[in-house]
Amino acid sequence: MGKKINLNADIAEGWGAYDIGNDAELMKIIKSANIACGFHAGDPNTMHRLCMLAKENDVSVGVHPGFNDLWGFGRRRIEMRPRDLEYMVAYQIGALQAMAAYAGLEVTHLKPHGALNNMAAENEDYAMAIGRAIKTVDKDIIYVALYGSQMQKAAEKLGLPLAREGFVDRKYDDDGNLASRAIPGTVLKEPQAAIEHTLRMIEEGVVVSMSGKRVKVEADTFCVHGDEATGVKVAGAVRKALEAAGIEVVKLTSMSL
Fold it and tell me: pLDDT per residue over 218-248, tens digit each?
C-alpha cells in the first residue's frame, strides 16, 4: 500500500456504572485510542479496561485530558490560569501512564477533549500550557492538534512530535475550526457523507465548510466520535473506503511524523 493515515477515537468516556459509546466495537476499527482520564469522564476501572482492550486489538493509547467538568462532559468552556491548566493536564497524563502500565503499554499521544480542545485551538496560552505538560512528563508523547491551530504552533515551538488532526464526522467553519455541535447538521451521521468528506481531506487537502468554502486541511490522523449512536457504523465504513482506496490505516507510532 502507499499512503498511511491513522484513525483515532475518543473512548473510555463512561464513568462508574455508566458507559458511553460502543468502545469494544470501535476498538476493532481504529488504531489509536484517546482515553478519558477522570476529569470530563472516565475512572480507574474504565481506563484499565480500555487499556487492556487496546492491547488485545493492537491499538496505541493516548491521553484525552479535559476540564474538570463531569456534569458538562467537558464541553463547557472554562477560563483558568495557564499554569493551573498545565498541572491539570500533567496530572491526567500520569493517570493514564499508570493504567497503561497494567497492559504493558506506553502512552503514545495526547489529544485534548471537547471545550479544552476548542479553546486551545484558538488560545496560545492554553495550547502552550498543554505542550509544557507534555514536554515535562514525557517529551516523546505526540501532540495531536487541529491543523493550523495554536496547538500545532505550540508543538512546533516546543519541539514536540506533532500529528495534525482532521475529523471524519464533523463539519468545519470558514476559519478551519470545527463548527459548533449546537448548530444542527454539524455532525456527519451518514457513512457516505463521512467517506466523501474524509477522502477529500486526504486526496485534495481541503474540507468544504458550512458556507461552502474550500478550506485547506492537512491531516495525519482522523478522529471518529464513538459517543455518537452512528459512530461505529460511520467509522467502519470510512475504514473500508480508505483501504479500498489503497490507504493503509496504522497506529500513530507507525506514521512518519
Answer: 999 999 987 777 889 999 999 999 999 999 9
Q: Report whether 207 contacts 200 (CB < 8 A).
A: yes
Mean pLDDT of the chain: 94
Q: What is the pTM of this model?
A: 0.94
DSSP string for the chain: ---EEEEEEEE---BTTB--S-HHHHTTT-SEEEEE-SSSS--HHHHHHHHHHHHHTT-EEEEE---S-TTTTT-S-----HHHHHHHHHHHHHHHHHHHHHTT--EEEE---HHHHHHHHH-HHHHHHHHHHHHHH-TTSEEEEETTSHHHHHHHHHT--EEEEEETTB-B-TTSSBPPTTSTT-B--SHHHHHHHHHHHHHHSEEE-TTS-EEE---SEEEEETTSTTHHHHHHHHHHHHHHTTPEE--GGGS--
The C-alpha cell at 248 is 493503509
Question: Nearest Cα to 226, choosing from 18, 19, 23, 16?
Answer: 23
Report which of 93, 21, 14, 15 is spatially closest to residue 61, judged by C-alpha positions. 93
The Cβ-side half-sphere exposure at 201, using a 13 Å CA radius, reads 29
What is the C-alpha to C-alpha distance for residues 157 and 124, in angstroms, rounded to an integer? 11
Report which of 15, 8, 9 is spatially closest to residue 39, judged by C-alpha positions: 15
Residue 1, classified by CB atoms within 10 Å of its CB into exposed (0-12), middle (13-18) or buried (19+), is exposed
Average pLDDT over residues 152-159: 98
What's the first-to-final CA gap in the chain, in angstroms? Answer: 18
